[in-house]
Amino acid sequence: MPIAILVLVEVLIVIALSRLVGLGFRWIKQPQVIGEIVAGIMLGPSLFGLVAPDLAVAVFPAEAVPFLNVLSEIGLIFFMFLIGLELNPKYLKNNLDTAILTSHVSILVPFSLGSLLALLLYPIISNNSVSFTAFALFLGAAMSITAFPVLARIITEHNLQNTKLGTLALTCAAVDDVTAWCLL
Question: Three-class SS of residue 2?
């Protein structure tokens, strides 16, 4: 089968299962995006590759996966661009200082817990080539990064993107991620 047709079939499988599981999650009063994440786990090596490895390789061969990755990144870029277009700048302008303060305070707990977790994990998964300080800072920063696109999907699913609360939540998450990525 030509690679282009294979990638289109894979995209259809991913969209169909994501939609189906997402609607199932919405039916049980959970965000649809969480169901879509579960569908991704179901189609990945964690479940599909474990339960039916030969079928998983046939449906998602290694030579087609990079194309699927590129398409997913392009979709994410367009989605985030549309979220940015829908944000109301008047809410953003009036609440930027609140968003920055809230965001930086919200980084403290996961950063601190990640750094404390380093005490337990450093002897188990690290070696002498990495200093404990670098390991603890890395783990703390990594734990501080949010799932911004997931939050954006939940906010748009509930039609909050044009509200003061939705704009504040997205701004806090954006500032949080920029700060955490800088720390990282």
Answer: coil
Q: What is the pTM of this model?
A: 0.74
The single-letter DSSP state of residue 163 is S
Low-confidence ranges of the chain (pLDDT < 70): 88, 91-92
Residue 151 class from Cβ within 10 Å (0-12 exposed, 13-18 middle, 19+ buried)? buried
Res 179: pLDDT = 82
176, 103 in Cβ contact below 8 A? yes
Is residue 42 within 8 A of residue 21, CB to CB? The reply is yes
Considering all CA atoms of the chain, what is the largest pairwise distance in Å, rounded to the nearest integer? 56
List Cβ neighbours of 171 (8 Å cut-off, separation of 6 or more): 87, 92, 95, 96, 99, 103
Task: Give residue-wise pLDDT tens across range 120-137.
Answer: 999 999 888 889 999 999
